[in-house]
Amino acid sequence: MMRTEAATNSSENATGSSRIVPSKAEGIALCTAFILIFVFIVVGNLLPVVLFAVARRLRKRSLFLVINMAFADLMLGTVSLPLYIYIVDYSFELWKGGWSMSLSIFYAFVDTFLSQASLISVAFISGERFYAIYWSFKHRTL
To answer: 86 with 34: CB under 8 angstroms?
Structure first.
């Protein structure tokens, strides 16, 4: 009984609430997975953008929205995901870096802005596809 109470008291922080701190191995595994996802996002979204820029036959109006979404996802993956990895590393206490309020505000703004840009691109693509299916003859003349 006394041992359980001592373990409970030692796990409480200054505010009186208990917080379970994950191990560093879990943090390293999670950050490694996020870095692998980062590489896939960059390669997977950079490929259509480069192909669109290089190949002239791919420069059609029907692909502009797809390239827009690929670019928005590329920006989301290259700007927002490294900041998120830094947040995860900081919460797992893998390094003793500082997390300032300005960096937190910057991350919130960039993540929200780029996520909304990606979602708006998806909405425009689905609207354009609906228009192409529902009014196919009008769509061909556009």
So the answer is: no
